[in-house]
Amino acid sequence: MDLGVIDLSRLQFALTALYHFLFVPLTLGLSFILVIMESIYVMTGRPVWRQVTRFWGKIFGINFVLGVATGLTMEFQFGTNWSYFSHYVGDIFGAPLAIEGLMAFFLEATFVGLMFFGWDRLSKLGHLIVTFMVALGTNLSALWILIANGWMQNPVGAEFNPDTMRMEVTDFGAVLFNPIAQAKFVHTVSAGYVIASVLVLGVSAYWLLKGKWIAVARRSMTVAAAFGLASSLSAVVLGDESGYALTDNQKMKLAAIEAAWHTAPAPAGLTLFGMPDMAARTTRYSVEVPWLLGLIATRSLDHEVAGMSELVLRAEERIASGVIAYDAVERLKIDPANAAERARFEAHKRDLGYALLLKRHVADPRTASPALIASTAWDSVPNVPLMFWSFRAMALIGFAMIALFATAFLLCSLRLHLRTRWFLKLAVAAIPLPWIAAELGWIVAEMGRQPWAIEGVLPTFLASSSLGRGALWTTILGFTVLYGTLAVIEIRLILATIRHGPDEQKEDQPAAAPIPAVAA
Amino acid sequence: MSFFDYEMLRLIWWGLMGVLLIGFALTDGFDLGVAALLPFVARTDAERRMVINSVGPTWEGNQVWFILGGGAIFAAWPHVYAVSFSGFYLAMFVVLAALILRPVGFKYRSKRPDPAWRTRWDWALFVGGLVPALVFGVAVGNVLEGAPFRIDSDMRAFYEGSFLGLFTPFTLLCGLLSVAMLVLHGSAWLALKVEHGPVHDRARAYGTVAALASILLFALGWAYVAFGTIGFRIVGAVDPFGPSNPLRTTSVAAPGGWLVNYALYPWMMIAPALGFVGAALALVGIRRGSEPLAFAGSSASAFGIVATVGCSMFPFILPSSVDAHSSLTVWNASSSARTLGIMLFVTLIFLPIVLAYTGWAFRVMFGRVTSRDVRTNPDFY
């Protein structure tokens, strides 16, 4: 394999995925905020709520199309850039992607057209149901995508088949109800709700500071404060750290996040700050809170949190066992009917992926020396300083969001939100923060997955397509230029829409000019 | 469950792949055709807005057929997904870049009144319609010719072709046929959906040319398949229940091989017949001013042309032109029986639901777009 191609493929995936996730969380959250606003309109019948709904609907629309446009790339990128991954796990990984299209994306994409064009053609309640279907569709989309992603982190319900040289489903229920997927779903959509709430809160605060569109702004702010408080609590409290104790690789991710180089006696302390040093395998200047990590990660006082050194020893054993499975697979390629080899394979198949880690250093893992196996075991550790800092920055923003929305909620309840100017300024300044946290969250999740594409199953450096560097540079530059241009356009349009403000409300529009069914 | 054995599941999923591709051609196909026609059938801003709004409320749902097609091929035919999209890498990038312009083009064009801004988006939409239509056809042509890839014993695919190598006289012919077919479908949609006036007249004129071109190009393609050098056949035994391992199949080039099925299964002739008859009916409908007939005809034609490709190649899905043991077929490139079964179950539940609400959405937006609508309705693009 050409490691340059691997790095470029990873760069492209990271760029397009992180870019995609600038738009998706806003769609996830704003769709439900629209449902709340429109429900109030339908229940009270007050035109100002229609105005509120339609304004945020406009912002939703500008953002939505870029989520869709960049999602196109994601759906096909596994095939274009990660073709060995696609072959190796398509039997499992393809299903949630396909179901996402069928169950969720059809729903949101079909109803989003009616949401924008149907104001005059649907009853009030009918339109509200359409808006709700859009919100349901976007959130179901997230569920299926995170089931796929959760399986990459914890590949349950599947095993390797030497006849087809790939992973195949053994228990689809386990894939569906993968606890890591569930935790990720709750955490990710909550983060999306926070992002949308912060935008609504910040823009409303901006208007209040300018003294414009007070009626729309204060109502929007109230909705955002309540929804944002619930969401930020959910995002932080139901963060997916609880899933980190489940498997060897999840434990490794947790150990890297906490820079836990060695297993500490239970209950482990939480390192608040420090300087992790990969080369020396130690953390300098660390500030520790006793007991806290053990409590968070194991929900107990007597379970240990595994450290990296111990997990690496475990990886070393699994590599040695995996080499036996690898050898059996090579022999089964020549003679698929060999029962003895099949039995050897069955005994060691769950470690096959670990043997593949050796392919970074030798063409045939069977020739690896014990010393090489021992040094390769350290490949199973992700980039510790990156994990350590990304996680802390994300968590800090999470707590800041709770404080922000708690304050907003308090001020709204006391009816002080129109006058408290310092808070309004703070709310505007806070707008970018949750986006940063969301991107950092993906960095923690996916960089923490390294060196694996599928944890314990397929290393990233084996997963890519057999492409040339020229082709990759072409598409990276192409996507960068295209996405960059579109980002500038989108931001300008959103800013212009915010400056323009909500459309003046005509008296609650009559049930629309009837449209002739067929013009003669 | 004996009816749904592995062989039957593979056959069903071969059929469902056809359903998805045809669903895409029938629904998003007219969106692509309309976008490709936009700068020509409509000249003033008001005219262009009528054209854009004729698909504005529904195109987004239609596009999901494409995305679902990608996802379903991934789930049911992972080898095909892995080999084709990585092999046609730059072509795929061109398609994606063009398709990315569509959602933004539809939405952002109307956000500013500036004519230069709007003209730029009109051309972006034109690219977003024409380029995918062309490249999809070229890609199908390459599939028919066989693609230069090999699969090693780890099942890793290596592609030996180049981007420019995708364009041969035959594949370009297929590309043009795809454009003609979708432009015909798009003009039939416009004739049905836009009020009588200059746009309607121009759509009919372009539709006439596209219908004639479709018939001519489809006949030329058929002749090339019959008398040219393309086609493949499987040598030796095939196990329809065997594991999905392409290395255990041997295939060779066999000129004329793409017509063998029509002798074995004469009912398959329905597909090419629909391709021709549909286009002819569309032509009659357009000339007589019977728009429903024109649209039914163009739909039948697109259905027939896509189905012809599938019927001609069965059981091949993606033959290799350079390696006898790499060709992907219905019997060696699918997911496991369990995955095919689960996905079939999910499809049987959700596809009818999707069709039901899609039908409802089209009904809500029923009726022609008028120049009055684009002047007065603030929700229009």
From TrEMBL, chain A:
Membrane topology designation: Multi-pass membrane protein
Keywords attached to this entry: Cell inner membrane, Cell membrane, Electron transport, Heme, Iron, Membrane, Metal-binding, Transmembrane, Transmembrane helix, Transport
Tagged with keyword ATP-binding: no
Gene Ontology biological process terms in this record: aerobic electron transport chain
Gene Ontology molecular-function annotations: electron transfer activity; heme binding; metal ion binding; oxidoreductase activity, acting on diphenols and related substances as donors, oxygen as acceptor
Cellular compartments per GO CC: cytochrome complex; plasma membrane
Alphabetical list of InterPro entries matching this protein: Cyt-d_ubiquinol_oxidase_su_1 (IPR002585)
Positions of transmembrane segments: 20-43, 55-72, 92-116, 128-147, 185-209, 221-239, 389-411, 423-445, 470-489
Record's subcellular location: Cell inner membrane
Superkingdom of the source species: Bacteria
Family as reported in the entry's similarity comment: Belongs to the cytochrome ubiquinol oxidase subunit 1 family.
The name this protein goes by in its record: Cytochrome d terminal oxidase subunit 1
Species of provenance: Sphingomonas oleivorans
TrEMBL record, chain B:
Localization of this protein: Cell membrane
Stretches that traverse the bilayer: 12-42, 63-80, 86-102, 123-144, 164-184, 205-225, 264-286, 293-318, 338-362
Origin superkingdom: Bacteria
One function term, GO molecular function aspect: electron transfer activity
Gene Ontology CC entries for this record: cytochrome complex; plasma membrane
Keyword Transcription annotated: no
GO biological process: aerobic electron transport chain
Membrane topology designation: Multi-pass membrane protein
InterPro entries associated with the record: Cyt-d_oxidase_su2
Record flagged with keyword Repeat: no
Main subcellular location: membrane
Alphabetized UniProt keyword annotations: Cell membrane, Electron transport, Heme, Iron, Membrane, Metal-binding, Transmembrane, Transmembrane helix, Transport
Any Pfam family matching the protein: Cyt_bd_oxida_II
Signal peptide: none
Family: Belongs to the cytochrome ubiquinol oxidase subunit 2 family.
Matches recorded under NCBIfam families: cydB (TIGR00203)
Protein name: Cytochrome d ubiquinol oxidase subunit II
Gene that this sequence comes from: cydB
